[in-house]
Amino acid sequence: MADKQIGILIGSLRRESYCRAIANYIMSVAPTGLSIKEIPLGELSMFNQDYDDDGTTPTAWKVFREEIRQLDGVLFITPEYNRSMPAVLKNALDIASRPYGQSVWAGKAGGIISVSPGHVGGFGANQHLRQPMGFLDIRLMQQPEAYVCDVTTALDDKNNVVKESTQQSLQNYLQAFKKWVTIIEG
Description:
It is built from seven helices and six strands.
């Protein structure tokens, strides 16, 4: 059986972001049966429907839509900005959901991991990111939820995940997500 193709969308564009550290760890410990790769968001201009309507759709949007179309599932790794999801993730959701009626999100398995240096683990961002998933028909895994709190205590000075409990929690989440993708994709 072929590996399930999973994309990671990182909600922070900062090179040394905590979300990137978690995503890198996840990609390095992907369980057998999952092929996980980052789908970069940094080249996506802000969504403006006029581009699609005028036939001037940016190349980066076309590439992004096609990359998402080819996936079996998507993992969103999000920081929390002002108790909500970052604009880069909302923008990505909008771009791949258009033109209207041509969303490439429909039917994809989805998972959310929120990351924060605080004690709440990005709860606000996690919950806000869940809100559009139903409308977009992203089949979001409800349990287990994943909140990486106090992330700075889980990383070494090179941004590697070294805290054993964080490693174990993320690996358990990936095993559950692997089962979820298999159920959704059949």
